[in-house]
Structure formats: structure tokens, C-alpha cells
Amino acid sequence: MSAEELIRLTAREAVSRLKRREITPRELVEAALARIAAVDPAINALPTICAERALAAAAKAAPDSLLAGLPIAIKDLTDVAGVRSTQGSPIFADHVPARSDLMVERIEAHGGVVLAKSNTPEFGAGANTFNAVFGETRNPWNTALTCAGSSGGSAAALAAGEIWLATGSDLGGSLRTPASFCGVVGIRPSPGRVASGPSELPFGTLAVEGPMGRNVGDAALLLDAMVGEHAEDPLALPAPAGSYRAQAERPRLPRRVAFSADLGICPMDPETVRIARAGAERLAREGVEVVEACPDFSEAPAAFKTLRALGFVASLKEQYDRNRDKLKPDVIWNIEHGLGLDAETIARAERARGRLFQRLAGFFQEFDLLICPAAQVPPFAVDTRWVREIAGQALDNYVEWIRITYAITLTGSPVVALPCGITADGRPVGLQLVGRPRGEAPLIAAAAAFEALTGLADKVPLAPRGPGGPAAGPRR
After folding, report:
1. Average pLDDT over residues 35-47
2. Partners of 135 in the β-ladder
3. For residue 340, how many C-alpha atoms fall within 13 Å in the half-sphere facing its CB?
4. Residue 473's CB: how many other CB atoms inside 10 A?
């Protein structure tokens, strides 16, 4: 097969061919390197390439392993042994760890070949991928636009065909917003589903690691390679009895779902709402009962602001003390807000989060899924660092334009973000499908069924195009 044909294979197609020895891991590595050389200058998605390491791993990959030697990209917040791992920060610009993160070790044990690190904002802060080490990552659909963040490099690389699978992480929407902006799929698993670390903060449940792919089945395949217990992660859950890929390949529409355009708390771009609502209506035409409803999320903004700031103090106070002059203003703002918290405020946020979880648990006694937009706005200019106004409502800090994702974070529910439609001027819009706690299996089956209705998975990979460029052709 030609390099062009190889990069257009889905991850599952590529793995199947690897297992049948129709292609080799080395051929895929070389095809990806050629594609990266051709398109990455336009988008800056994969600034760190580890070709020699990847070729060495490809030579040893077992064809009977889960990923069988498939090249992947790892988000630059996550350590890869012997590879520059910067966290998007000048403080770690030359950091080369001796050991990989637990998640990377597991993926490699399953036959994944790490080829590149994907760009991310500094310490993952902010839903726009830019940093002082590598610069900004652009959206392949329109290089004048942002790919969002913080897993923006992974999403852009997938959309541009540079890689078949990529990892992301998600605290306030860092998997889901880039998936929406780039027309790909991101899965935010339940806390504990994917082991990570070793960490000084192993008991946190706001941030999780998760897979990204060009379609639901591909992302589910990577999730299979990520899950399972680990002695160095106290929250890690046992691997499920069945395969998530198998769930995606047996798509099942849900019986009854709730749709909310705004969770009752979010200012929304009108065209985004129109496209998301059309997605819900598509389900209704297939016989799914769709009800406009959602739990009470009114306590979510204050609770998230407090708990996020507390986490920034726990993880970055030492860097604040030593290197404040090297931190971007948004990181400083989070840390300083956290330093000003009192015990009563923290306790109030914890109780509010607990009430929200209980409300959603009750809600899922009536509904199979909660469906809502994956972003409050469509992709915007890459040099707009954060959205300051939506539908006439002013926003006073850099996380409020992702309220529709961070509110869901607080529930601990698994979420699939996947393409829903495209604006009149060609910008992707995604939908969040929110499942029951630890309910990844039925959620993935439902997401695959919705994906089949839209036909949007075939829109990527695409060649990066500039402002006003021609519409990208489909994958096939």
C-alpha cells in the first residue's frame, strides 16, 4: 500500500492488517513520518518526534498484541521515557524523563508504538493550544482557527491524518472541546478507568486520561489498551470483562435520552445549539424518545472554580514559588485564587459536587443518556486566547467558555464527544453523550450508533487548509 493509502486507514483497519501481516509497523511509522513532514508545518500539532525510538519499538512489536505495532501520539503533559516531555512549559522545556507514565507503559505493553508528543497549553491550562515552548497549534479545517485544548495537538494530528490514535487528558473539557473543534472523537472515561502516575496526587478525580480517534470504534480500541488496575494508582479500576471496541462494533441506539442545549447554566452560540438540536432530532427520527431535560447544574460553576483552583495549588505551588516569572498569567490566576480559599469554601464546593452527583444518579433512573453540545461556540481565531462573550453575555475568566464541559466533569460520568454537524462556514460542531457512572460500554455502543446516523466520521483525515480554502474531501 502507498503511504497515502496507509494514513487513510482507520486505526482498526490498520491493526487488522498488521495482525494479518499485510503491512508492517515500520511501514506505518514511515508513512506517518512522511505525512507529518508534509502537513505539520501548517498546524504544529506534533512538535516532538521520536522516530528512532518508534522504529526500534516497531521492529519488536508483536502482531498478536492488541495494537500490533500501531503508531500513536502521546499528549505532552504525559511523560514518555527518553523523550522530551515539556508540559508546554519553559520550566520543563528540556525535561527528558527516565520513566514513562503508567498509561504509556500499558499502551506500549499492548503493542502501541509511540511516535510523537502532541502539543498542549502550559500545564494543560486553557482550552486553546499554545505555549512559549512550541507556539500555537492550528485547526486543520481552517488554519486561521484554534483547535481548542488542552488536547489540541492530539485532535489536530488525528484530523490531519498524521497519526491513527492519540491520547488526551481532560479536567474541564480538554478531550471534548478539541474533539468538537477538529471533527474527531474523544472519550472522557470514568475516574479510575485509566491508570496514570506515579503521582504525588493519586486520589484526584477531576482530571482523567483518555483516548482520541477519528471515529468511535478507533477511540474505543485505544481505550481497551489503556484500562486496568495498577498497583501504583490507588483508584484504578479492573479492566472490563468485554472489549470496548466490540461495543462500538455492535452499535445500539438508546431507548430514552435527555437533551439540553445549555445545561441551564451556559450562554450558547445559536448556530451551535441549532446543530446540536438537529442531532437530537435525528435520534428521535430513529425511534429514540428524546426529552428536553437535565439535572440542576446551578451549583457547578462555583464548585468547579474552587476545586480547580485547589488542584492548581496542590500541583503547582512549588513552581509558583520558584518560577512565577515563567508561568503564564492564567496559571498564576488559578494558583492565587486557590491560595485565597478558606476551609468553608472548599467544603461547600465538595458538598455541591456530591449533590450534583446524586442528582445525576437519580436522573439516570429515567434516562439512558444526557446529550448536550460539546462546546458553547464553534472554532474561533487562533490568536483569540479565550472567548470573552457569548450571545451577549460577558465572561470574566478563561474557563467560563467551557462551562458546558466542566459542569459534566464534576459528575464523574463517562462522556463521548463526537461530531454532530458543520456550521454554514465549515466549522465542526460536536455533541457530548454523557453516560451513567462507570457505564462506558453502553455509552460507546450508543455513540457508535449516533455516529452511523451522521456520516461525519468520513470527513477526516483532511489536508490542512487556510482561511477560505476549498472544502476538504471525505476520508473515502
Report:
1. 98
2. 131
3. 7
4. 10
Residue 468's pLDDT is what?
Answer: 64
Helices (H) and strands (E) in the chain, counts: 15, 17
**Residue 75 designated active-site:** yes
Active site residue 150: yes
What φ, ψ does residue 125 adopt, rounded to 5°?
A: -85, 120
- Residue by residue, what is the 3-state secondary structure of 347-408? HHHHHHHHHHHHHHHHHCCCCCEEEEECCCCCCCECCCCCCCEECCEECCCCCHHHHHHHHH
- Catalytic residue, chosen from 85, 118, 150, 169, is 150
**Strand partners for 433:** 371, 416
In whole angstroms, how far apart are CA 475 and each of 180, 335, 392, 463?
A: 18, 43, 37, 10
| Homologous superfamily of domain range 3-301+340-459 | Amidase signature (AS) domain (3.90.1300.10)
Side chain identity at residue 105, one-letter code = E
Give pLDDT, residue 471: 40
CB 249 within 8 A of CB 362: no
| Identity of residue 70 | L
Burial label for 281, CB within 10 Å (0-12, 13-18, 19+), is exposed
Query: Domains of the chain: which residue ranges?
Result: 3-301+340-459
Q: Which of 65, 85, 174, 260 is catalytic?
A: 174
Residue 250 binned pLDDT confidence (cut-offs 50, 70, 90): very high
Q: Closest Cα partner for 475 from 160, 219, 250?
A: 160
CA 155 – CA 13 distance, rounded (Å): 20
C-alpha–C-alpha distance, residues 115 and 54, integer Å? 5
H/E stretch holding 41 reads helix 25-43
Sheet with 165-170: list strands edge to edge: 48-49, 113-118, 71-75, 165-170, 208-213, 185-188, 415-422, 428-434, 369-373, 256-259, 289-292
Catalytic residue among 75, 117, 305, 328: 75
265 has a pLDDT exceeding 50: yes
pLDDT in tens, 419-436: 999 999 999 999 999 999
The pLDDT value given to residue 467: 87
Give yes or no for residue 475 having a pLDDT over 70.
no
Whether the per-residue pLDDT at 473 is higher than 70: the answer is no
Q: Are 132 and 98 in contact (CB under 8 A)?
A: no
3-state helix, strand, coil in the chain (%, to 5): 40, 15, 45
Is residue 100 part of the annotated active site? The answer reads no
